[in-house]
Amino acid sequence: MVQIAPSILSANFANLWAHVAQVEAAGAEMLHIDVMDGHFVPNITIGPLVVQALRDKSRMTFDVHLMITNPDQFIGEFVKAGADIISVHAEACTHLHRTLQTIRNHGIKAAVALNPATPLTVIEYVLPYLDMVLLMTVNPGFGGQRFIPEMVEKIERLNTWRRERKLNFTIQVDGGINQETAPLVVKAGADILVAGSYIFGAADISTAIRSLRERCG
């Protein structure tokens, strides 16, 4: 069954915990936590202190997406704050294999994120060390962007690699996910859907999450 990971980038930060509690009560398995530094992407969001404050109140899997330069410097802090999975961008890592080892040595799951224009070949030789691959279907940095349709083929290709090489990583998709795009990416091979504005911008969060599940069968 497809998993839903609401992205707090689109939540109301003035009432963040209430929004997080709503998605957890609605059955979301994961909480996607977008960390931006204003350098790797043109925006600034949150740090470990916010993650720690939420961790004490939630049982969801905390999926921390580091959209930052020099992610190695902050891995330990986010692990201590309560991250269950950390995604680093291949584009931001000089020694990607070493960075993944660092994450795994902390006893949590390791993931790599790829921007839309970054080819899959960049991560081909680290696939056996991954618990998850995050494919961006918009350019990272802002919520509410339009899904890039060419990314469906990229998801299909990664899914083919996974099947042919008998690997067990999950495929997560982030960007422009809604009732129309969700079935496309799931059919292509996605296991986890990150959705921000579609969920937190809905009149009813529970209905939005349920509609994504229903549309994906």
Order of the strands making up the biggest sheet: 1-8-7-6-5-4-3-2
Radius of gyration, whole Å: 16 Å
What's the CATH class, please? Alpha Beta
List unreliable stretches of 5+ residues. none
- Kindly state the number of beta strands: 8
Under the CATH scheme, the architecture is Alpha-Beta Barrel
Q: Kindly report the CATH topology.
A: TIM Barrel
Which geometry do the CA atoms define?
globular
Mean pLDDT over all positions: 95
Strand content: 15-25%
Coarse structural class: alpha/beta
Tally of separate helices: 8
Distance between the termini: 8 Å
What is the helix/strand order? Answer: EHEHEHEHEEHEHEHH
CATH superfamily: Aldolase class I
**Main sheet, how many strands, which sense, barrel?**
8 strands, parallel
Give the helix proportion (percent range): 25-40%
How many domains would you count in the coordinates?
A: 1
Short description:
The chain is α/β, with parallel strands linked by helices and 217 residues long. The chain is built from eight helices and eight strands. It has helices at residues 16-25, 48-55, 75-81, 96-105, 151-164, 181-188, 197-200, 205-215; strands at residues 3-6, 30-36, 61-67, 85-89, 109-114, 132-136, 170-174, 192-195.
